[in-house]
Specification:
Number of strands: 0
Oligomer: single chain
Order of helices and strands: HHHHHHH
Helix content: over 70%
Structural class: mainly alpha
Largest sheet: none
């Protein structure tokens, strides 16, 4: 497996991803909009479950971030299908790149996008929480622990 060939495919995929704003809307904006609608519903459920100081963000933020992270699977599949649709799949397969290099080269940008999406959504939610005092009323250690646990569950 050649790092040079893999990085060439990764650079090409980043260039293609930079020209299409739709994945960013799906991965970042959509979860933030959904959190605004789901937070009141989760608040009622958590209060009814015995958590009187809950505000709903405790479940809306990590739930939407992880749920929307699953879109990466479809986006990665579409990266392969788009090569076929553009009639460049045969050219890519005829190159010196092995199957493993092509798979890694097409998957790495999506994995990076998933991690970036997760960090951006949580950073916005935590900043929103500290600004309005909505999420972290107890301590900043609680928010750090939540972020660490959620990021571990996202990467597994």
């Amino acid at each position: 497996m050649s790092l040079r060939r893999t990085l060439a495919i990764v650079r090409h995929e980043f260039r293609l991803a930079g020209r299409d704003p739709l994945p960013i809307l799906i991965l970042v904006v959509f979860p933030l909009v959904m959190m605004a609608f789901l937070k009141p519903a989760f608040r009622d459920v958590l209060v009814a479950s015995g958590y009187p100081h809950a505000n709903g963000a405790e479940q809306a933020v990590p739930g939407d971030a992880v749920l929307n992270g699953f879109y990466i699977v479809g986006m990665t599949s579409f990266a392969f299908f788009s090569e076929y649709g553009w009639n460049t799949w045969e050219r890519l397969r005829a190159s010196h790149a092995s199957s493993a290099e092509i798979i890694v080269g097409k998957a790495v940008p999506r994995v990076i996008a998933s991690v970036a999406q997760f960090l951006v959504v949580f950073a916005i939610a935590i900043c929103w929480a500290f600004t309005f005092g909505a999420l972290c009323r107890r301590s900043s250690r609680w928010c750090s622990a939540l972020l660490c646990v959620s990021s571990c569950s996202e990467s597994s």
